[in-house]
Every structure is written in C-alpha cells, then in structure tokens.
Amino acid sequence: MATQVPAGDRTRMARPEPDVVLDDDAELEAIAARRLRVAGALTAIMLVVYFGFILLIAFAKDFLSRELTPGLTVGIALGVVVILATWAVTWAYVRWANRVYEPTVAGLRR
C-alpha cells in the first residue's frame, strides 16, 4: 500500500511498500546478478551476430554476392541465419528463465 503524500509536497512521489519482505536479500541479489549475466551474455552474442552481418554487408560485398545455388546467395543465407540466431537466443533465455530464474524467485517468495 502506498503512503500518502502531504498536500504541500506534490513534487515528490511516495514510494510504495513492497508486497513481499524477504529475510535474506542476498539470495535475491544473487539471482538478479545471475539474470544480468545471462542477459548480458545473450545480448553480446546477438550484437556480434548482427553487427558481424552488417560489417559483412559494408566490407565484403563480393563474398555476400556469391551464389550458393541459383537464386540463393551467401548474403541471403546469412540473413536467414541472423533471424534464426535471434529465435535461438530468445529460446535460450526463456528456457533459462523457466528452469532457473522463476523457480528460484518463487522459492524466495515462500
């Protein structure tokens, strides 16, 4: 429940009280730090994939224009790989969150 802000102090908003008070904040901080590491690693992977593709477009046009089969170039194939990598990274995060993060947070709430 949020606390009331005095009428004369409308510029400062009151901070709501937490729904759950944890006895041991260290566990919550540890799982939050782990989530940040996982998200950071997956973000780094996606940045490498995406900017690697963009750099190839900028500097390796000859390579990307090579035909693998009639109508399919290396550039088109790598574009599909970028999209598939996005799905794979999203799947990896959702799987980790469902198997590790959510059960840990649910355990802390009890």
Task: Explain the overall architecture.
The structure is a single chain. This protein is mainly alpha-helical and 110 residues long. It has one domain (25-109). It contains three helices and two strands; from the N terminus they run H-H-E-E-H. It has a two-stranded antiparallel ribbon with strand order 1-2. Helix 1 (25-59) packs antiparallel against helix 3. It is elongated, with a radius of gyration of 23 Å. It starts with 24 loop residues before the first helix and ends with a helix. The model has no long low-confidence stretch (mean pLDDT 88).
- Number of domains as seen in the coordinates: 1
Q: Enumerate how many helices there are, as a single number.
A: 3
> Helix-strand pattern, N to C?
HHEEH
Count of β-strands: 2
Structural class based on helices, strands and sheet pairing: mainly alpha
First and last CA, distance? 20 Å
Radius of gyration: 23 Å
What is the overall pLDDT average? 88
Low-pLDDT segments, ≥5 res: none
- Which percent range fits the helix content? 55-70%
The main β sheet shows up as: 2 strands, antiparallel
Report the sheet-strand fraction: under 5%
Shape: elongated
Strand order of the largest sheet: 1-2
